[in-house]
Amino acid sequence: MREVTILGGGESIKYCPYDTKEIWTCNRVYKKAKRVTKLFWMHGFKFDEDVDFQVITKKTYPYKAIIEKFGDYFTDSVCYILAYALYKGYKKIKLYGVEMNLKRHQEERPGVEFWLGVAKGMGIQIEIGEGSCLMKR
Fold first, then answer.
1. Which DSSP string corresponds to 79-103?
2. Taking CA 35 as the corner, what is the angle to CA 112 and CA 54, rounded to the nearest 5 degrees?
3. Domain 3-128 has CATH 3.40.50.1820
4. What is the SS3 assignment for 118?
5. 100 with 133: CB under 8 angstroms?
6. Is the pTM of this model over 0.70?
7. What is the pLDDT of residues 50-72, one digit of tens each?
8. How far apart are CA 14 and CA 86, in angstroms?
9. 81: number of CA atoms within 13 Å, CB side?
10. What is the pLDDT, as a whole number, of residue 103?
11. Strand partners, 38
């Protein structure tokens, strides 16, 4: 089964077991991670650091194909990562450090939960790290 772990910058990143081949993250979270295979750099300045993993930018992201297949609801970088995982056919998605429990996440959380709902509807297994308020009331 194709599995991917998605890392955010929250506290539960420390509980990530790094037990999947694919470890994806966004923005500067890669500096906190023990291992990364793909970085999504969707906002801000050009990424020009020398790293040993693939970097996906707005320029290289298959945005048109993804919105044609799933729709267009991106409230933060984690949404782009989740949509990409669905587009690529992953069957299990693990999230660590994606708590979405701070006040600044109030506008971002619905988008992340939308993509998790799409994933569940597709029969994809979702594992959410402790401390996250995703998919909860």
1. HHHHHHHHHHT-SEEEEES----SG
2. 75
3. no
4. helix
5. yes
6. yes
7. 999 999 999 999 999 999 999 99
8. 25
9. 27
10. 66
11. 24, 54
Phi, psi (rounded to 5 degrees) for 69: -85, -40
Instruction: Report whether 40 contacts 58 (CB < 8 A).
Output: no
25-51: pLDDT as tens digits? 999 999 999 999 999 999 877 888 999
Q: β-pairing, 92-96 with 54-57? A: unpaired
Identify the CA nearest to 55 among candidates 83, 27, 32: 27
Residue with tokens 């267009």: 72
Residue 93, amino acid: I
- Please, which pLDDT band fits residue 134 given cuts at 50, 70 and 90? confident
Burial (CB count within 10 angstroms: exposed 0-12, middle 13-18, buried 19+), residue 34: exposed
Model confidence band, residue 77 (pLDDT cutoffs 50, 70, 90): very high
